[in-house]
Design goal:
With 78 residues, the chain is mostly helical. It is built from five helices and no strands.
Length: 78
Amino acid sequence: IVDAKLDHLVDDAWSVVNDSYKTDLCLQYPPYLVAIAAVVVAAGLGDRAAQAAAWLRALNVHVDQVWQIVDELFDMYD
């Protein structure tokens, strides 16, 4: 989060991670992917989506999986 300069979103990302336990995401994906998706969701809620997307592209992760998790998290909030 510090590398992405999104450290002001720590509390929001933590809340998203806690909310994710209402789903089965923790059984389907590794914890680090859920955490990355939580940062992306928190950034999206705080109008920092473009900044988070640039950070996400720089990471060595399966971006498609992260976006699947993000979609499921946003569906949970709907």
